[in-house]
Amino acid sequence: MKVLVNLRKPRSFSTPPPFTKPHTQKPLTIFSSHQSTSPNSPNSMSQQHSNSSSMKQELNTQIQQNDPSMSDYPTPLSPPLPAISKDIELNRAMSASSNSSLFLLSKDDIIFQDQWLFVVNKPSGVYCETLLSSAPALIQQPADSTGPLEFHLANRLDRDTSGVMVITKLHKAAAKLVKAFTDHKVHKTYIALCVGITPKWSKIRLKSGHGRSKYGAWRVYSSLDVGRNLPGGSFVRDMETLFEVISINGETPLEATYEGKDNEENVAVVVEEKPLIEVKHRDEVVVRAFPRSGRTHQIRLHCQYLGMPIKGDVKYEGVYEWKGETCVGHALHAESLSFEHPITGVPLKFQAPLPCWAAQAMGL
Question: With 195 labelled, which of 43, 56, 187, 309 sits at a CA distance of 20 to 30 A?
């Protein structure tokens, strides 16, 4: 016999609810416009559109005035996610799930291996957790090992980002390597193919804030807002990336050599306001990025802010179609990782082979 239990409190009509003083708000005024001209005339339709926009702006202003909490949070400097990105990202996620279910790690994917860890070249369009789950079938336990292998992702890459990933084999190595990433002691380089304005700099250092907006999207914030609270209980964190231009439309600019070291030639930009960028002509720009912090979508967000979003990165205003081809993912590659071995302390540097799009864009 089924027993249905109603967990809602029974409604009582014997006593009226306690009186609470209503929250005092400024009245919302809805404006109405009457047209003396014909409603189907062009002038009338233009005037109606103008009045409608004014009404919406006035209404939003009044709502913000009546809800002080909306003005307590910092304003993001980068735009919200484009409407087109929702369906495209969903299709890409479904495709990646299918690819990941069929993916098997092979010896060709391994760049380095010892008894503590191994380094792999992650392909684009595959979730990094897939590499972790397929590791036991390829990585055998060493004969001199005293305990079972415990695979752990030391770093993560976005679904469409390819390149260097480190997977540890034992908990001892995982704990130390994760701490090295957290303390920013791991040096990383990325290659990105951007489509946008031609940069007027050869090297630039960009500092900004980073955080989730009201609707959960990652956005760029002013560096002055670092530490301020955001919706959902998080707060604005600092974000810094060094960029170097490698090529523009397949041609290498002068002085395109940089090793991630600070020098007086670098253009330093501290983000405090929205960028004033007018895109009149779009070029292909290949950049090498040196992230000094490890924020989610950091390079993608900073490229968007600079007016040259990554090709195929529809979430951050990247082109979906370019030169007659549809982009199946964003063009971002984790080129190298440098760190001290978590157990032996030996300096290590690993570099993944460039994908085809990077080699072609760089004229290699």
Answer: 187
| Count of Cβ atoms closer than 10 Å to residue 166 Cβ | 25
Structure tokens at 12: 């009582």
Question: Annotated catalytic sites, by residue?
Answer: 158
Asked whether the predicted pLDDT for residue 43 surpasses 60, the reply is no
Q: In the predicted model, is pLDDT for residue 232 greater than 50?
A: yes
**How many Cα atoms are found within 13 Å in the side-chain-facing hemisphere of 93?**
7
Phi, psi of 218 (to 5 degrees): -75, 135
Question: What are the tokens at 167?
Answer: 């997977």
SS (H, E, C) 199-250: CCCCEEEEEEEEEECCCCCEEEECHHHCCCECCCCCECEEEEEEEEEEEECC
Q: What is the DSSP letter of 243?
A: E
**Separation of alpha carbons 115 and 27, rounded Å:** 70
CB-based contact 174:168 (threshold 8 Å): yes
Q: What is the CA radius of gyration of the chain?
A: 26
CA-based max dimension of the chain: 91
